[in-house]
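Researcher: Please generate the 3D structure of the following complex. Treat every line as part of one assembly.
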Amino acid sequence: MSDNNPFHHDYAFPFFGENPSSIYDHQANNTQNHHHYNQDFDYPSSYMSTLTECLHGGSMDHYNSLSSAFGMNNNCSSSSEVVCPPPQIDHHNHQESSRKNSVDDHHQIPLTPNSLISSSSNSEAGCHEEDSSKIKKDDQCEDGDDDDKSKQVSKLAKKKGEKKQKEPRFAFMTKSEIDNLEDGYRWRKYGQKAVKNSPFPRSYYRCTSQKCSVKKRVERSYEDPSIVITTYEGQHSHHCPATLRGNAAAALLSPASFLSSQQQLLIHPHDQQLFYNNNTNPNLPINNSFYNNYHQQQPQLGPPDYQYGLFQDMVASLIHKHEP
DNA sequence: CGTGTTTGACCCGCGC
DNA sequence: GCGCGGGTCAAACACG
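Model: Done. Output below.
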């Protein structure tokens, strides 16, 4: 697949978070002129729970409800109810991670207005074929390569005789200076690759929980370097570590809930004006490991006060918006 | 020492 | 068959 845009073959949802100043700039300068938002677009507060359920291992019904909730068609030829903001190449906002692999050419690919919004199920023709490739690899193992028997045995035992189902995927776009957005789960990075036509590498993460095969890819949009594209693959087979402590309030106010709800909220351009993007809050350390360290080292405590405040502001706003 | 990251090598599918 | 690009593996390394 030559397409390096995950939104062309994954279940995709556009999210944008911005700080107030930047959204004003966007709207004043670009958004309204070059891209349209569906005026009838509705954003029920159930987004919050729906997305969380998806991330916590919900059924495909959740995917459907998500897609419908976001006004997306289930077929691939999306009518693009929501269009992403225009690409703004911001070269001073490049990430600093090392790139071992040089990218041959960084030429700009013409942006189609719907390029980031189209969605498809995994059964669509445009999906990845990585699972079939794995199966084939395992078949080759059966042929008897003595070299890597030990590591191949486990794979064989895992997949032999059954065709592994393709994992459902969905992707988020988030305006953030942080690449790896905290979602409440613990992830282990297992790879990084240069992306064709993009100066930004793609990172591969796997859920650290045993028996959980959920993966996620994180990459920065080459069209707008301030946008982080996170693609989840699979569904967690365990509870979110951030919500495991049995404290409903803590769970509600956990960074995981905060971030996902923030992303959902920020899908609507009008809401973008209401909230700070947590990740561009100058009071927050711009540090990938901030939330990870927080969860690992201070799991008994709630988020900092400003996070409480932000989240409560958002919830209050949501309630206000949906009151008759 | 346990956990997570980095990074070169490798595999696979696909197009030519 | 060959090269390319995406995805994964695993040894080496970093860090608390």
